[in-house]
Amino acid sequence: MGSVSTVTLPTTPKGRATAERLLAAARDVAIANDGHIEIATVAEAAGVVPSLVHRYFGSKAGLVRALVDDFFDRFHEQVLDLDLEDRGDWARHEHARLVLGVEFHYREPFSRVMHGLLARDPEVARREVERIAVVVDRSARSIRRGQKNGELPVGVDPGLAGAAMFGAMRLVLVEALTRTPRPSARKVIDVLWHQVAASVRIDPDRAPS
Questions:
Q1: Residues 98-120 pLDDT 10s
Q2: Mind giving me the DSSP string for 162-183?
Q3: Do you find a cis peptide bond into 183, omega within 30 degrees of 0?
Q4: What residue segments make up the domains of the chain, in order of their start?
Q5: In a designed cystine with 57, which of 4, 26, 63, 86 is the match (CB 3.0 to 4.6 A)?
Q6: How far is CA 118 from CA 34, 42, 73, 103, 113, in A?
Q7: C-alpha span between 138 and 109 (Å, rounded)
Q8: Phi, psi of 13, deg, nearest 5
Q9: Angle between helices 158-177 and 122-148 (to 10 degrees)
Protein backbone atom coordinates (compact mmCIF):
# COMPACT_ATOMS: atom_id res chain seq x y z
CA MET A 1 0.00 0.00 0.00
CA GLY A 2 1.36 3.40 -0.94
CA SER A 3 0.38 6.86 0.18
CA VAL A 4 -3.30 7.57 0.78
CA SER A 5 -3.69 11.30 0.38
CA THR A 6 -7.27 12.57 0.61
CA VAL A 7 -6.42 15.88 -1.04
CA THR A 8 -7.55 16.11 -4.64
CA LEU A 9 -5.48 18.80 -6.30
CA PRO A 10 -6.96 20.77 -9.20
CA THR A 11 -6.32 19.41 -12.68
CA THR A 12 -5.07 22.63 -14.26
CA PRO A 13 -1.43 23.71 -13.86
CA LYS A 14 -2.55 27.06 -12.44
CA GLY A 15 -4.86 25.38 -9.94
CA ARG A 16 -2.20 22.91 -8.79
CA ALA A 17 0.31 25.72 -8.40
CA THR A 18 -2.15 27.69 -6.27
CA ALA A 19 -2.96 24.72 -4.03
CA GLU A 20 0.74 23.99 -3.55
CA ARG A 21 1.41 27.66 -2.74
CA LEU A 22 -1.34 27.59 -0.11
CA LEU A 23 0.08 24.41 1.43
CA ALA A 24 3.56 25.94 1.52
CA ALA A 25 2.15 29.04 3.22
CA ALA A 26 0.28 26.89 5.74
CA ARG A 27 3.48 24.97 6.56
CA ASP A 28 5.37 28.22 7.08
CA VAL A 29 2.61 29.57 9.33
CA ALA A 30 2.54 26.36 11.38
CA ILE A 31 6.33 26.40 11.80
CA ALA A 32 6.40 30.08 12.76
CA ASN A 33 3.48 29.82 15.20
CA ASP A 34 4.24 26.58 17.03
CA GLY A 35 1.60 24.63 15.12
CA HIS A 36 -1.16 27.22 15.36
CA ILE A 37 -2.98 27.73 12.03
CA GLU A 38 -5.81 30.03 11.05
CA ILE A 39 -7.31 30.38 7.56
CA ALA A 40 -6.92 34.17 7.61
CA THR A 41 -3.23 33.96 8.57
CA VAL A 42 -2.52 31.42 5.85
CA ALA A 43 -4.35 33.51 3.27
CA GLU A 44 -2.37 36.59 4.27
CA ALA A 45 0.92 34.68 4.06
CA ALA A 46 -0.02 33.41 0.60
CA GLY A 47 -1.22 36.83 -0.59
CA VAL A 48 -4.79 35.67 -1.30
CA VAL A 49 -8.25 36.18 0.16
CA PRO A 50 -9.44 33.67 2.80
CA SER A 51 -12.23 32.45 0.53
CA LEU A 52 -9.62 31.00 -1.81
CA VAL A 53 -8.25 28.80 0.98
CA HIS A 54 -11.80 27.61 1.67
CA ARG A 55 -12.28 26.96 -2.03
CA TYR A 56 -9.31 24.60 -2.20
CA PHE A 57 -9.47 22.93 1.22
CA GLY A 58 -13.03 23.48 2.43
CA SER A 59 -12.20 24.38 6.02
CA LYS A 60 -9.40 24.68 8.53
CA ALA A 61 -9.79 20.95 9.21
CA GLY A 62 -9.39 20.24 5.49
CA LEU A 63 -6.27 22.36 5.34
CA VAL A 64 -4.79 20.59 8.36
CA ARG A 65 -5.54 17.19 6.81
CA ALA A 66 -3.85 18.36 3.62
CA LEU A 67 -0.73 19.32 5.59
CA VAL A 68 -0.60 15.91 7.26
CA ASP A 69 -1.11 14.14 3.93
CA ASP A 70 1.50 16.29 2.20
CA PHE A 71 4.05 15.44 4.89
CA PHE A 72 3.38 11.70 4.73
CA ASP A 73 3.22 11.71 0.93
CA ARG A 74 6.72 13.18 0.80
CA PHE A 75 7.88 10.71 3.48
CA HIS A 76 6.62 7.86 1.31
CA GLU A 77 8.16 9.25 -1.84
CA GLN A 78 11.57 9.96 -0.34
CA VAL A 79 11.85 7.07 2.12
CA LEU A 80 9.21 4.38 2.47
CA ASP A 81 8.42 3.59 -1.16
CA LEU A 82 12.01 3.51 -2.40
CA ASP A 83 13.19 0.13 -3.71
CA LEU A 84 16.32 -0.58 -1.68
CA GLU A 85 16.52 -4.31 -2.29
CA ASP A 86 19.86 -3.88 -4.07
CA ARG A 87 21.43 -2.79 -0.75
CA GLY A 88 21.61 -6.40 0.43
CA ASP A 89 19.55 -8.50 2.85
CA TRP A 90 16.67 -7.22 4.98
CA ALA A 91 18.93 -5.80 7.68
CA ARG A 92 21.01 -3.81 5.23
CA HIS A 93 18.24 -2.33 3.13
CA GLU A 94 16.08 -1.48 6.14
CA HIS A 95 19.05 0.12 7.87
CA ALA A 96 19.52 2.21 4.73
CA ARG A 97 15.81 3.13 4.87
CA LEU A 98 16.14 4.13 8.52
CA VAL A 99 19.05 6.43 7.65
CA LEU A 100 16.93 8.05 4.93
CA GLY A 101 14.02 8.41 7.36
CA VAL A 102 16.04 10.16 10.04
CA GLU A 103 17.69 12.42 7.46
CA PHE A 104 14.26 13.30 6.05
CA HIS A 105 12.99 14.39 9.46
CA TYR A 106 16.17 16.30 10.27
CA ARG A 107 16.10 18.38 7.08
CA GLU A 108 12.31 18.92 7.13
CA PRO A 109 11.43 21.93 9.33
CA PHE A 110 7.79 20.83 9.51
CA SER A 111 8.74 17.56 11.27
CA ARG A 112 9.08 19.16 14.69
CA VAL A 113 5.66 20.78 14.39
CA MET A 114 4.01 17.77 12.79
CA HIS A 115 5.02 15.30 15.49
CA GLY A 116 5.04 17.81 18.31
CA LEU A 117 2.83 20.82 18.91
CA LEU A 118 0.54 20.37 15.90
CA ALA A 119 -0.11 16.77 16.94
CA ARG A 120 -2.32 18.13 19.74
CA ASP A 121 -4.87 19.20 17.13
CA PRO A 122 -7.66 16.57 17.10
CA GLU A 123 -7.82 16.62 13.29
CA VAL A 124 -4.07 16.04 13.06
CA ALA A 125 -4.29 13.19 15.56
CA ARG A 126 -7.10 11.49 13.62
CA ARG A 127 -5.40 11.81 10.26
CA GLU A 128 -1.99 10.84 11.63
CA VAL A 129 -3.45 7.63 13.07
CA GLU A 130 -4.72 6.73 9.59
CA ARG A 131 -1.40 7.50 7.93
CA ILE A 132 0.61 5.69 10.60
CA ALA A 133 -1.52 2.59 9.99
CA VAL A 134 -0.32 2.64 6.37
CA VAL A 135 3.32 2.93 7.49
CA VAL A 136 2.93 0.04 9.95
CA ASP A 137 1.29 -2.08 7.25
CA ARG A 138 4.22 -1.38 4.93
CA SER A 139 6.68 -2.34 7.66
CA ALA A 140 4.76 -5.55 8.39
CA ARG A 141 4.83 -6.55 4.72
CA SER A 142 8.56 -5.92 4.62
CA ILE A 143 9.05 -8.13 7.67
CA ARG A 144 6.97 -10.89 6.08
CA ARG A 145 9.17 -10.77 2.98
CA GLY A 146 12.24 -11.00 5.20
CA GLN A 147 10.76 -14.04 6.95
CA LYS A 148 9.86 -15.66 3.63
CA ASN A 149 13.44 -15.13 2.44
CA GLY A 150 14.85 -16.67 5.61
CA GLU A 151 16.39 -13.36 6.74
CA LEU A 152 14.18 -12.86 9.83
CA PRO A 153 12.91 -15.26 12.52
CA VAL A 154 9.49 -16.70 11.68
CA GLY A 155 8.34 -16.30 15.27
CA VAL A 156 8.26 -12.50 14.99
CA ASP A 157 4.75 -11.01 14.69
CA PRO A 158 5.06 -8.68 11.66
CA GLY A 159 2.28 -6.31 12.70
CA LEU A 160 3.49 -5.87 16.27
CA ALA A 161 7.10 -5.55 15.18
CA GLY A 162 6.18 -2.98 12.52
CA ALA A 163 4.23 -0.95 15.09
CA ALA A 164 7.12 -1.14 17.54
CA MET A 165 9.59 0.03 14.90
CA PHE A 166 7.60 3.07 13.79
CA GLY A 167 6.44 3.89 17.32
CA ALA A 168 10.03 4.01 18.50
CA MET A 169 11.06 6.10 15.51
CA ARG A 170 8.31 8.63 16.11
CA LEU A 171 8.96 9.06 19.84
CA VAL A 172 12.74 9.18 19.54
CA LEU A 173 12.49 11.77 16.75
CA VAL A 174 10.11 13.93 18.80
CA GLU A 175 12.67 13.91 21.62
CA ALA A 176 15.58 14.62 19.27
CA LEU A 177 13.88 17.34 17.23
CA THR A 178 12.80 19.32 20.30
CA ARG A 179 16.27 19.39 21.88
CA THR A 180 18.62 22.35 21.62
CA PRO A 181 21.09 21.47 20.32
CA ARG A 182 19.82 18.40 18.54
CA PRO A 183 21.72 15.15 18.97
CA SER A 184 23.55 14.10 15.82
CA ALA A 185 21.57 12.20 13.22
CA ARG A 186 24.11 9.38 13.54
CA LYS A 187 23.38 9.03 17.25
CA VAL A 188 19.63 8.92 16.60
CA ILE A 189 20.10 6.33 13.84
CA ASP A 190 22.18 4.14 16.16
CA VAL A 191 19.54 4.24 18.92
CA LEU A 192 16.72 3.50 16.49
CA TRP A 193 18.54 0.71 14.68
CA HIS A 194 19.01 -1.15 17.97
CA GLN A 195 15.24 -0.79 18.54
CA VAL A 196 14.50 -2.12 15.06
CA ALA A 197 16.88 -5.05 15.53
CA ALA A 198 15.28 -5.91 18.88
CA SER A 199 11.80 -5.78 17.33
CA VAL A 200 12.65 -8.39 14.70
CA ARG A 201 15.12 -10.33 16.91
CA ILE A 202 18.30 -9.91 14.89
CA ASP A 203 21.83 -8.89 15.76
CA PRO A 204 22.13 -5.11 15.24
CA ASP A 205 25.64 -5.67 13.90
CA ARG A 206 24.16 -7.31 10.78
CA ALA A 207 23.98 -3.83 9.26
CA PRO A 208 26.41 -0.88 9.39
CA SER A 209 26.13 1.07 12.65
A1: 999 999 999 999 998 887 767 77
A2: HHHHHHHHHHHHHHHHTSSSPP
A3: no
A4: 13-58, 64-206
A5: 63
A6: 7, 15, 17, 21, 5
A7: 25
A8: -55, -40
A9: 130
Fold of 13-58: Arc Repressor Mutant, subunit A (1.10.10)
Which residues, 6 or more positions from 38, have their beta carbon under 8 angstroms from its beta carbon? Answer: 29, 60
Residue-wise pLDDT tens digits, 157-195 = 999 999 999 999 989 999 999 899 999 999 999 999 999
64-206 has which fold?
Tetracycline Repressor; domain 2 (1.10.357)
Amino acid identity, position 120:
R
13-58 against 64-206: fold identical: no
Residue 196 has pLDDT above 80, yes or no: yes
Q: What is the DSSP string of 111-165?
A: HHHHHTGGGGSHHHHHHHHHHHHHHHHHHHHHHHHHHHTTSS-TTS-HHHHHHHH
